From TrEMBL, chain B:
Keyword DNA repair: no
Domain of life from the UniProt record: Archaea
Stated name of the protein: 2-oxoacid:ferredoxin oxidoreductase subunit beta
Organism this protein belongs to: Halorussus caseinilyticus
PANTHER family for this protein: 2-OXOGLUTARATE OXIDOREDUCTASE SUBUNIT KORB, 2-OXOGLUTARATE OXIDOREDUCTASE SUBUNIT KORB-RELATED
Pfam families (UniProt xref): PFO_beta_C, TPP_enzyme_C
Domain Pyruvate ferredoxin oxidoreductase beta subunit C-terminal: 202-262
Cofactor(s) this protein cannot do without: Mg(2+); [4Fe-4S] cluster; thiamine diphosphate
InterPro entries, alphabetized: 2-oxoacid:Fd_oxidoreductase, OFOB, PFO_beta_C, THDP-binding, TPP_enzyme_TPP-bd
Domain Thiamine pyrophosphate enzyme TPP-binding, chain residue ranges per copy: 51-198
Sequence segments annotated as region (Disordered): 130-154
Keywords: Iron, Iron-sulfur, Magnesium, Metal-binding, Oxidoreductase, Thiamine pyrophosphate
Biological processes, Gene Ontology terms: cellular respiration; organic acid metabolic process; sulfur compound biosynthetic process
Length: 586, 287
């Protein structure tokens, strides 16, 4: 068996699946193993199947695969739900003493470990710890040093007092001992530990952390899956830096509050998902025409309307790129993994202030709720630079006033970027508006001024295109005639798919694009390739449309829109099929 | 902030395009006087305006200002004030802006009690879109979109504010310059959300709620034995649909504004050049 371990716990929502999974993930990470988690969850609080899955290896893991080695099944349905991924030799841990689990059918070739989770938990101090008993059992199956689990338990329950921690450790021991005593066969899953230090976090947390690092001090939002974790992360932390999180009455309010704070000079952001971004659309144009720096994160989930709130999709690309009436200069960044959620958030704040535009951070559910391990240095705080752009102080204001001494916040400069006087700056008082305005910020319908201001705002995009680095990342065989392009969180699965493809002697050049707008010009790459496949989690291929438009050519598409992210092995298979398929016809 | 600030310093050199005689002139003059009287100057003042004739106010005043989208001025003001507590924030809008499209924000701004002043120029009609019914229009008021009247009772903004836990609720009449200025001034001085509904007649589209009508019907609380700290007394007056009151109807003297409750006292524009010094702690939390 490879060192790659695929573990899951599943049961009913409300069974503590999430926190138990997180504890095990943390234990693995503390033992110097890489971890990549995924969640199957339904949109309800109690009842309904839910699972927390962990893929773990001593090597970096960046996607989920179609395989499950150890499954803690708290309900019979958990086994049914995962049948496809279970294989010969898979271990299923379940509580055969529970009435509803007595008749569990362990499929042929698999190893069923009936462990009295509830009874052992009670012996350790309370039935509530039955999941921890299962974790102890899993440690035994994998020969995983249980001390790592202890330290994860200390982290989780440390604040609740020593006796709670001790009881949980005891519960884990009972699970471990039970398996050691009752089942004498050797298991195949002998996993290694290393001395490496990793941190384990999800994309929403990384966005929140990036925001604080970048000096964001104001966040207004309205709860929505899967963006809420950003707000929950910032709450209680941003205050330590003099900031504030406001739970607004709705998204219309949230984005306008964030806009107000930004106009007062704070680095400010809001985050939401599909239905919320719709409501915020009204204000996109105001942000852009008033030239207010604002970061708007859209953590995509499956749509349209309320769609499948707990499922994956990359369906809002067009929305963030084109949403809003009229034409709006904006930037759209799409991080490709959890660490990049951090880096792109920092970048978003700098771009927003430098160019005084809305900057969209287009993340997706799979990345937002996925915990991933990284070397802590990946979150390099020393590398965080803060560029506040053309903020003018009271001495500089005069250079930007007209003949009557009035400050001109929308002065049509050569690079399109105007001076910015933060409120409180002496002699900088000015107004700004969503109405078309002149350089003073005053309403106008003068045809020449209209053109001058529209051009000025668009010029900012040109300047950014020239001054900033919008390069994509490249993997695989750079000489290959097969080109695969993806954006957002597909990068991890695709990188692993490259290995699978190599095994099948299919060579592929892979370009991962973290920028939607501005974006790298891939026309030459597309032109040079024989076959071009664009991979994305939506039905219609929104990014493929754009690339076809950019390169005036047709590309093949691999789309997934059942609500689940790409898996590496599955993706490899689909790419292979797509490459072999007939040419796309115009 | 200088002490020789005059109210004209808050005037921009842009001539208002309001119809001659519009109530908004008086409302705005009172606001500028109140700002100057309370020791503010244009550089520390932020005016947020909504949409409508009333919303044009930010253009005619001189200060830091934002003219936003319809109905959302209060959230903008909230963001401005929380981000920089040193700014004097004044939000202005119309009855359509505040009680129709922005009604949700109104209730929540009231209960959030951010220390700012909200002035609504209530002309009981939509002015800028040329005369449709507004939420404060009378039940039988005939307009282009309600030829037989709206046939629904008008919103009572003061009652909404009181029920949402408002800490300062007042009403004034734009043409009564001295009283109007005095009332807005009290709203500015109030620690918390100072709400003033101003009768600001539309001379073009509203021939019912006119200067004459208000002049004849207004009861000034200064001439009545009204104790604004008495919530029950305020309630009785506010729910009295037959009277138009001028004055401070209710003021909670114990009001603690949002920023104080949340310990916000710094200007959020001041941030370090890079990540905070202890930022690696944020990463270590994830060990
Ligand atoms: C979202 C949106 N809907 C409609 C409008 C059109 N509109 C402009 S002003 C206005 C009504 C303003 O009425 P009120 O707030 O009473 O202000 P007044 O003009 O009477 O001062 C409307 C509906 C708009 N600008 N935005
Ligand atoms: S239409 Fe009415 S509210 Fe608008 S400016 Fe004229 S008088 Fe004033």
């Amino acid at each position: 068996m490879p060192d790659d371990l695929n573990w899951a716990i599943g049961g009913e929502a409300g069974d503590g699946i999430d926190s138990t999974g997180k504890i095990f993930a943390q234990a693995l990470s503390r033992a110097g193993r890489h971890v990549f988690t995924s969640k199957d969850f339904a949109s309800r609080i109690r009842g309904g199947y839910t699972a927390y899955k962990i893929r773990s290896s001593t090597d970096k893991v960046e996607s989920v695969v179609d395989r499950l080695d150890i499954l803690v099944a708290l309900t019979e349905r958990t086994i049914e739900e995962n049948l496809d991924e279970l294989h010969e030799g898979s271990v299923i841990i379940y509580d055969g003493e529970r009435t509803e689990m007595q008749d569990v059918d362990v499929p042929e070739g698999m190893i069923g470990l009936s462990v009295p989770l509830q009874r052992l938990a009670e012996e350790a101090g309370g039935a509530i710890m039955q999941n921890i008993v299962a974790l102890g059992a899993a440690c035994e199956v994998t020969n995983f040093p249980i001390e790592n689990l202890d330290s994860a338990l200390e982290k989780k329950f440390g604040t609740k007092g020593e006796s709670i921690v001790d009881n949980n450790k005891e519960a884990a021991r009972k699970g471990q001992e039970f398996v050691a005593e009752e089942f004498d066969h050797e298991f195949d899953y002998d996993i290694d530990t290393t001395d490496n230090d990793y941190v384990l976090l999800n994309g929403d947390e990384a966005i929140g952390m990036g925001a604080i690092a970048a000096g964001c001090r104001f966040y207004a939002g309205y709860p929505i899956t899967p963006a809420t974790d950003v707000m929950e992360y910032l709450t209680g932390r941003i205050e330590q830096y003099g900031g504030e999180v406001v739970q607004a009455e709705d998204e219309l309010s949230a984005i306008n509050m964030a806009l107000g704070a930004a106009r007062a000079g704070a680095r400010s952001m809001t985050a939401t998902s599909g239905p919320g971004i719709d409501l915020m659309t009204e204000t996109f144009g105001l942000v852009a025409t008033s030239e207010t720096p604002l970061v708007i994160a859209d953590v995509m989930r499956s749509g349209p309307s309320t769609g499948m709130p707990t499922k994956q999709e990359q369906g809002d690309l067009n929305m963030t790129l084109y949403g809003g009436h009229g034409e709006i200069p904006r930037f759209v960044l799409a991080p490709t993994n959890v660490a990049e959620c951090f880096q792109k958030t920092v970048e978003a704040f700098n771009l927003a202030e430098k160019y005084q535009t809305p900057v969209f951070l287009l993340a997706d559910l799979s990345m937002a709720v996925t915990e991933q391990t990284f070397e802590p240095e990946v979150f390099d705080m020393d590398a965080v630079e803060i560029d506040r752009g053309k903020v003018v102080d009271e001495d500089e204001v005069e250079a930007w006033t007209d003949e009557k001494g009035r400050f001109q916040p929308h002065f049509p400069t050569a690079d399109g970027i105007s001076p910015r006087a933060l409120p409180g700056t002496t002699d900088g008082a000015h107004m700004s508006t969503g109405l078309e305005h002149n350089s003073l910020g005053r309403r106008t319908e003068d045809t020449d001024v209209r053109i001058e201001q529209v051009d000025k705002r668009n010029r900012k995009v040109q300047t950014a295109q020239e001054e900033e680095d919008w390069s994509p990342r490249e993997f695989g065989d750079e000489e290959s005639d097969n080109l695969v392009i993806s954006w957002g969180s597909n990068e991890g699965a695709m990188r692993e798919a490259l290995d699978f493809l190599e095994e099948d002697d299919v060579s592929v050049r892979f370009i991962s694009v973290p920028y939607i707008f501005p974006r790298p010009d891939l026309s030459d790459d597309i032109e040079a390739a024989d076959e071009v496949v664009v991979v994305e989690c939506n039905a219609n291929g929104q990014f493929a449309d754009i690339l076809e438009h950019d390169a005036l050519t047709r590309v093949k598409r691999v789309n997934k829109y059942n609500g689940v992210r790409f898996k590496a092995d599955e993706l490899a298979e689909e790419i292979k099929e797509s490459l072999q398929a007939e040419e796309v016809t115009a | 902030m200088s002490s020789d600030i005059r109210f004209t310093d808050f005037k921009s050199d842009k001539q208002p395009t309001w119809c001659p005689g519009c109530g908004d002139f008086g409302t705005m003059n009172g606001m500028m006087k109140a700002l100057a009287n309370t020791g503010n100057d244009p550089d520390n003042t932020f005016v947020v305006a909504g949409i409508g004739c009333s919303g044009k106010i930010g253009t005619y005043m001189h200060s830091y200002a934002l003219h936003g989208v319809h109905g959302r001025a209060l959230p903008v003001g909230t963001g401005v004030k929380l981000a920089n507590p040193d700014l004097e924030v004044m939000v202005a809008g119309g009855d359509g802006d505040g009680y129709s499209i922005g009604a949700g924000h109104f209730i929540h701004a009231v209960r959030r009690n951010v220390d700012m002043t909200y002035v609504v120029m209530d002309n009981r009609i939509y002015g800028l879109t040329k005369g449709q019914a507004s939420p404060t229009s009378r039940e039988d008021f005939e307009t282009s979109t309600t030829p037989e009247g709206p046939k629904q009772p008008p919103v009572n903004p003061l009652a909404l504010a009181l029920s949402a836990g408002g800490s300062f609720i007042a009403q004034s009449f734009s043409t009564d310059a001295q009283r109007h200025t005095e009332i807005v001034q009290k709203a500015i001085e109030h620690d918390g959300f100072g709400f003033v509904n101003v009768f600001s007649p539309c001379v073009t589209f509203n021939d019912v709620d006119t200067y004459d009508y208000f002049r004849d019907s207004i009861v000034d609380l200064a001439e009545e034995d009204h104790d604004p700290t008495d919530r029950d007394a305020a309630k009785t007056k506010i729910l009295d649909a037959d009277k138009e009151y001028q004055g401070v109807l209710y003021q909670n003297e114990e009001s603690v504004p949002y920023s104080e409750l949340h310990g916000l006292d710094s200007n959020m524009a001041d941030i370090p050049d890079g990540a905070p010094e202890d930022a690696m702690d944020l990463v270590r939390e994830f060990y």
